[in-house]
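Friendly challenge for the regulars: who can give me the structure tokens for this chain first? No prize, just bragging rights.
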Amino acid sequence: MKFDITSLDGKSAGSIELNDEIFGLEPREDLIARMIRYQLAKRRAGTHAVKNRADIARTGKKMYKQKGTGGARHGSARVPQFRGGGRAFGPIVRSHAHDLPKKVRALALRHALSAKFRDGGIIVWDNANVDGPKTKSLKDQFAKAGLASVLIIDGSDVQDNFALAARNIPQIDVLPVQGINVYDILRREKLVLTRAAVEALEARFS
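First reply, four minutes later:
Bragging rights claimed.
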């Protein structure tokens, strides 16, 4: 399908052919949801931990004799029943990541791109280059274009001036095409792809 290309200033810069196998699919919410769950689980630190009874520095000597006290039978002061004892079934340091087949991850990305295209949330720029690393001027350009929440995907390399100018603007994310992912696509209102990013995506999925 043909799609109009604009410049950073909003001027027309020709058109490009978008691949239906990437941008024209019927979006599957289940695939997208699985991918987001995979991404969010993988980024969790998993560093929460507590002391169980084996980690408590307390004597293991039997507290009192087994019979004749009239109380419950206890063998250790480190058990969870006592103040200062270990916690039962508490969290331990672990990875929350789970597996998702590579083909499913690739398909989920295509469905996320198709969903964004169907919602009218995709813009294609000729390039993402600016003359200098000026945040104020770039912010003004975004305001004129009505871009407030945007993920910008460039080619294999992002221009240093553009990256420096955009990095301090809230809700503006700039990534090279290698970093494109389902979660970031859906968390921003608009997805801006440069011509180089579109070509790289088509080469990746061909």
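The radius of gyration is 27 Å. The mean pLDDT is 93. Your move, everyone else.
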